[in-house]
Automatic annotation (TrEMBL), chains A, C:
Signal peptide: none annotated. InterPro entries: DhaK_dom, Dihydroxyacetone_Kinase. GO terms for molecular function: kinase activity. This is Dihydroxyacetone kinase subunit DhaK. Residues 7-330 form the DhaK domain. The keyword Transferase applies. The lineage of its organism: Bacteria, Bacillati, Actinomycetota, Actinomycetes, Propionibacteriales. Keywords: Kinase, Transferase.
Automatic annotation (TrEMBL), chains B, D:
It comes from Nocardioides aquiterrae. The gene is dhaL. This is Dihydroxyacetone kinase subunit DhaL. Keywords: Kinase, Transferase. PANTHER family: TRIOKINASE/FMN CYCLASE, TRIOKINASE_FMN CYCLASE. It comes from the Bacteria.
Length: 332, 213, 332, 213
């Protein structure tokens, strides 16, 4: 196994330790509780934002803790959602008296564990709003239960984070988060599997010259395997379902995010983005903002997730608000 | 030979299961890698380690406190889908042990029926979806039938284990409809479900502990 | 070849097109001249900063064009330094009347081509200062001619960029750039080779469980191959020569940069960084700032380059000045 | 058979070299990948394409203008170490063609001696460093000797090509001291240098063009 690693058991803690060491002014890693919190908690009254999920998807989730985004993150083991105790500890750190929004990706483990935590916390009097992220366009709308939470997670955390920072109340923050999810679709492809540290070998084999179409996180295979075409054609595959579902047409205003899956070189990712941008622009849409880089990943998978968010003035304004986290920073 | 499991028997059951999970960690990861993300064995290994720490407490007053303590240990150590589901299994099973220090076939049947229902509710799943429910559901039914037929404990738990194992094997022919396997559609066909495999082991361990009393 | 790619011939242009599409407010790609310039040129009188080199090292060099860093970049073909005509075009775009600093990595091709361009431009009356970057600590000081230009390139571009933005004159900008090079050392390791698009296969084979020690950019092998140890031990290998040469001791003030080589997942990179940070801190040094991510790469190599810069108040102050480029952004 | 190369002969030489480079692109990349970064063939392919575009101009007044035009085309299309060095070779060689439309052995010897010196200066290298200098340097010497011995042009260029090829093969036993190969130290031993290989081809093409006049 070609990895920078001490042992499979320490991978997650080592990552979080290093992340906190590199960003001491932003975040703190509480090893016993296995949570990451802001180095300087937000002021009293701000609605709290908590997210978490399996590790291996870095910079999700700890990389988005900081002013303008999350108050706390609870990273689970590799590809394993966090446990209720962790989620509850993160919620306590994030609760500034005005309630907490959970940003939950639609994976069974996450839904169940955040659900258990929310039930216990609600009984204890904490106000919780659960926002389910299910932007995966690889399943048709009638299979919405299968729709995974993918790139929208990052966009929702940014936008809801800005709304919370502005002093919006719990319901308002949850509402803008849900509106963001509803306006976003993501589609992914993978040119390789990944090697989970404990498994010690790739989750699946992919013959050279092929790729998986419609993947999520966690080293998932896609729903289909096909011969790998040119980047221009991959751009079409990424866009087809997204554009159809979002009804993208002349005048649509968009934020795009193209994330590598962990081992995708920047030269390839931007090359692919050029074709995506070109097709969107030719369709008459206006790309207002874009992010291209490693924003949510699957360990060392080679691949890309394209997210497209249809925006209006309010969402763009929230997007442009300052953010200062390990993985996303502007205006600060 | 008592026709009920004492608290010590329950401990031996869980010890046997823990040993089995640890020794099968790689196999379970392997199975999970065929349709999922390849860490079910590692997840459960963490769970049984936490369970052992919980069982170090020698002061359980009844089967409920022992089993619910195990359930909480699993819920807060495993994570993922299986953590919540296995935790639910033990928490539901614990209800059948309220105020008693022994579980007979009838209580086991009640407890596992409730556990299977809990899995179905929390996981929003039914038998045939290619999950651990496909092992626990028939096992619970076998216990119910064995109890109704007044079979002895050893035979009853063996039938449960056999039913779980049959259910486990049947998952190979199923297309996953929930969990990570469901992303694969028909490509999940031909692979035995990891969670059903560990769940079948839970029943096999129950029988071993019963038979070796 | 598992790559997002249209054809080997279009890889570089596709990348630059996509980079410009994602950052229209920051940069412009002039395809005919094969250069990248700021979307809004700096004001008259600012000293210009130009860098360039082989492509495949993204975000070097085009990713660092923008306010606070470069005025123009001239990316060559993959692993091939730019040609004099490109360098001259970039210089014309960067010259605001106060001369231009060339930031040249110590690779033969770069030294020769920038040298040829500087000679021609100087004869035409352009004031050029050449700053040679040779921070590679894998060769001993008496083999300084072999010392490649590595991570210091990014740090120099940031710091000299801030000095230029502040209105410092040509000699001052060159001087602070040279001081930065002299105070910086880099050491790299690779756990895999890379696959240049035209070669179509990895440059070299590395048996599983081994790594190359002392690598540079361009898919270079290192000077030695060894069994891959734990991340903690790799941290020692990265630090040993750097710390000895820079004389790092109690009270040393440092900026650190740990860059992945293109396909290094963040979870591994930060895990490694934790061990590096820990050793530096235990030695009594103070890590004032740190960057961990993909800042200069070798296509899809798996590996890491560690750069350590010894800083004083002036360098920290220049470091903290606003920067707004595709790959580095703060205070803006 | 004239004992000098006309402008058309020079064109045929360069055409032959261009064809060879294009057909050997993968081989040269392969060689470069053993000790360098695997793109020497692709670099030179770009160079000869630019050279062909330059040669489309039919109006060169003398050998100097033809060869310097080729040199500039290479300098501004190849990049890398070899672009600057090959460009220098042609620019230096062009000096020997000032005001004449033919190059005899004596002028070729002068031109390549100056070209080899140019490589040595620009590359800060000497023979034995495992570079293209190890091909051009002995070839220039062979031309000098052939010219002094009044050998005919065909024999002279053949000796030059043989000398370049011997020099090329000798690079296998050298440890690289400049260029990318130098990062490898002794690990560069056993591999023939890519630049020396293409340079030997330049002389072999010169001989072919000479012999086929
Ligand atoms: N919704 C569900 N209902 C019932 N069982 C499920 C469900 N989702 C997953 N499982 C079971 O959990 C097993 C996987 O467990 P594990 O790998 O530990 O968690 P995860 O799926 O989160 O990676 C599957 O093999 C399946 O048996
Ligand atoms: N300093 C130098 N002096 C002479 N020749 C050199 C020098 N550096 C490199 N070369 C030659 O250039 C060849 C490599 O050319 P190429 O691969 O096109 O450029 P790069 O080395 O920049 O990747 C080497 O095989 C060697 O013959
Ligand atoms: Mg999982
Ligand atoms: Mg799993
Ligand atoms: Mg090169
Ligand atoms: Mg080369």
């Amino acid at each position: 196994m070609q990895k920078f690693m001490n042992a499979p058991d320490t991978v997650v803690a080592d990552y979080l330790t290093g992340l906190a060491a590199a960003h001491p002014q932003l975040i703190e890693f509480r090893a016993e509780e296995r949570i990451v919190v802001r180095a300087t908690p937000a002021a009293a009254g701000k609605v709290g934002l908590v997210s978490g999920g399996g590790s291996g998807c870095e910079p999700l989730h700890a990389g988005y803790v900081g002013p303008g985004m999350l108050d706390a993150a609870c990273p689970g083991e590799v590809f394993t959602s966090p446990v209720p105790a962790q989620i509850m500890a993160a919620t306590r750190a994030a609760d500034h008296g005005s309630g907490v929004v959970f940003i939950i990706k639609n994976f069974g483990g996450e839904v169940m564990n955040f659900g258990l935590a929310a039930e216990i916390l609600s009984r204890q009097g904490t106000r919780i709003e659960k926002v389910l992220v299910d932007d995966d366009a690889s399943f048709p709308p009638d299979l919405s239960r299968q729709r995974r939470g993918l790139g929208a997670t990052v966009l929702v955390e940014k936008i809801a984070g800005a709304a919370a920072e502005r002093g919006r109340c719990l319901d308002e923050v949850a509402a803008v988060a849900r509106r963001t999810v509803a306006s976003c679709r993501t589609f992914g492809v993978a040119l390789s599997s990944c090697t989970p540290p404990r498994l010690g070998r790739p989750t699946f084999d992919l013959p050279a010259g092929h790729y998986e179409v419609g993947v999520g996180l966690g080293g998932d295979r896609g729903q289909a395997r096909a011969a790998l075409p040119t980047a221009d054609r991959v751009a079409d595959v990424l866009l087809d379902k997204i554009m159809a579902e979002l009804g993208i047409a002349t005048g649509s205003r968009l934020i795009t995010m193209l994330s590598g899956l962990g081992s995708t070189p920047e030269i390839e990712l931007f090359g692919l983005y050029g074709a995506i941008h070109d097709r969107l622009t030719r369709s008459g849409a206006v790309v207002e903002r874009s992010l291209v880089g490693n924003y949510l990943t699957s360990l060392d998978s080679l691949g890309a997730l394209l997210s497209v968010l249809v925006v209006d003035e309010e969402l763009i304004d929230l997007w442009d608000q300052p953010v200062h986290t390990p993985a996303l920073r502007w205006g600060a | 030979m008592a026709e009920a499991l004492s608290l010590d028997d329950l401990r031996r059951w869980l010890e046997h299961f823990a040993d089995a999970v640890v020794s099968q960690e790689a196999t379970l990861n392997q199975l999970d890698s065929a349709t999922g993300d390849g860490e079910h064995g590692s997840n459960l290994s963490r769970g049984v380690a936490a369970m052992r720490r919980a069982l170090a407490d020698q002061s359980f007053a009844d089967a409920q406190s022992l089993l619910s303590s195990v359930g909480m240990a699993i819920v807060n150590s495993v994570g993922g889908a299986s953590g919540a589901l296995y935790g639910t299994v033990f928490l539901r099973l614990s209800d059948a042990g309220a105020g008693v220090t022994e579980l007979d076939l009838s209580r086991l049947a009640d407890g596992f029926a409730s556990a299977a229902a809990g899995v179905s509710e929390l996981g929003r799943t039914t038998p045939g979806d290619k999950t651990l429910l496909d092992a626990i559901h028939p096992a619970a039914q076998a216990l119910r039938e064995a109890s109704a037929a007044h079979l002895d404990l050893g035979t009853g738990t063996d039938r449960a284990a056999l039913a779980a194992e049959t259910g486990r094997d049947a998952t190979a022919a199923m297309a996953a409809r929930v969990g990570r396997g469901s992303y694969l559609g028909d490509r999940s066909l031909g692979h035995i479900d990891a969670g059903a495999t560990s769940m079948a082991q839970l029943f096999r361990s129950l029988h071993v502990a019963t038979a070796s009393r």
